[in-house]
Amino acid sequence: MTARSLGSLLVALAASLPAPLRAQEPAGPLVVYNAGSLALPFRDLLQAFQRRHPGIVPRQESSGSLEAVRKVTELGKAADVVGVADYTAIARLMLPRHASWYVTFARNAMVLAYAEGAAGSAGIDSTNWWRVLLRPGIRTGRSDPALDPNGYRTLMALQLAERHYREPGLAGRLLAAMPAKFMRPKEAELTALIQAGELDYAWTYVSIARTVGLRYVPLPAAVDLSDTARAAWYAQARVKVPGATRAPADSVELRGEPIVYALTIPARAPNPVAARAFVQFVLAGEGRAILAKHGLTPVDPPGVTGTPPAGLLPAVPPPAAPARRPARR
Fold first, then answer.
1. Model confidence over 149-161: pLDDT tens digits?
2. What's the number of CA atoms in the CB half-sphere (13 Å) around residue 209?
3. Are 164 and 124 contacting, i.e. CB atoms less than 8 angstroms apart?
């Protein structure tokens, strides 16, 4: 048998093996729906992933997290990976029909971003920001709570600020100072308005402010939804958002929680091989470094709900056994 015919035989045998028994190189379109605050991190993740797997053709769509999920659950669109800024968007709207699991992979914090020279920004800090926002003529933007977790987290932050600063009615006054004309579908769209000078301030995430180079006011941990140890405190804030039918009676009440991002592979993902490989990349070393570069805090180790495909998650080494003390003689 010649070398050429032997090579042809080996190729034929490999092709005849069941998929689990042969290596599958990720290739083809990889459709990713992600939250607006993940637009830049996931862009870089997809580019780095494509460098490893040149056959991949990334197709990224950024929107509010709820909108991203509803593309799958209500519009019937096909995505390979869905990444959201609030794990509850997957837990409430995708499980169990549209996905059977999700993994939490990053954390973030709410901040108040502003451009250099913004009205009232001289001397603004974490103790007086709310007084600045209440001044006449101040233009403050926020995202739509029906489409974007940052939108309902803004409302939660206002409620928590009222409790933290012990200012009855503060949440209502701050909300009234943010008219609907300054609201956008997702918080990432507010960045351009800040940079163009069309807004003085905008509610956003620290990751976005750092990535695009905006100045921002760090908020107290009691307000910014970043501290996992303050879960009980955050739960005092509650916001209602439209449910699947958008009818008032179908609204969903959300409680304040620490900000936790999650992703999943939908049950009807067109390219599950590429999807699994991409999720593994996001959760591994290079992926975590890219997340951190964009101001996100990787969750270590990632938290899993449900049963993901075997081998999807990086192995977590078991805790070291305590050293045995030598027996006394």
1. 999 999 999 999 9
2. 20
3. no
